[in-house]
Hints:
Layout: H1 2-13, H2 16-39, H3 47-56, H4 61-78, H5 82-87, H6 92-126, H7 134-164, H8 168-192, H9 197-202, H10 205-211, H11 219-246
Helix pairs in contact: 1-6, 2-6, 3-6, 3-7, 4-6, 4-7, 4-8, 6-7, 6-11, 7-8, 7-10, 7-11, 10-11
Amino acid sequence: MINYIxxxxxxxxxxxxxxxxxxxxxxxxxxxxxxxxxxxxxDQMSLVExxxxxxxxxxxxxxxxxxxxxxxxxxxNKNLTLKNVVxxxxxxxxxxxxxxxATAILSIVAALIILxxxxxxxxxxxxxxxxxxxxILRDFSLRILAAIPLWISGISVGTFISLVFKNNTIFSFLYxxxxxxxxxxxxxxxRLLSEKFMxxxxxxxxxxxxxxxxxxVGKDAMIFAAIVGMGYTILFTILSILYFSRKEVx
Length: 250
């Protein structure tokens, strides 16, 4: 399985698709800092404010991982090249686990590069600021660490959807709808039918990502968010394995 993960990483790290994506998002973050520098009063901005902006968009990566899922899993499923992997005798459960792990690694590498450019350019343009402290840096880091399991859970959910639907448009549409509408739907149902739907709302991936944006986030909330992310990852990895084990790969 390790060799297959390495092969997936090598295949995608050597593709322009991956690096074009990373460069494009990195440039977007850099431009955001430059525009903010031009339009804002410089002494009102610092790395602390840049980090705050980063936290406010902490839910965005759950949608960006669609590109990673497309590269690692959806594209092969659409092009019917998964049969080549199966024909090599690699167990199907290991194929699924390897693809989720490879997608997660590629996403984390991309996130590190994007964050480094975003925060680095923010530091150069605005400076650390008088309010900067190790406590602020620790709080920022803990929020990101709590968000990682939630982002990875999005990968496991997306991998399952991409296995069921070969069409990239349908896969992307369903994925986007799932993560944009589920929270609203559960809130509406809780008002119209039963407040018990709020229990579902509280354990949604998007709900927990949004909770990490609050001004003050306790350690318990961060731990709960991480647990929710791990729970979804385990659940949808199992569902993907069960579905793929019964799927006829042509």
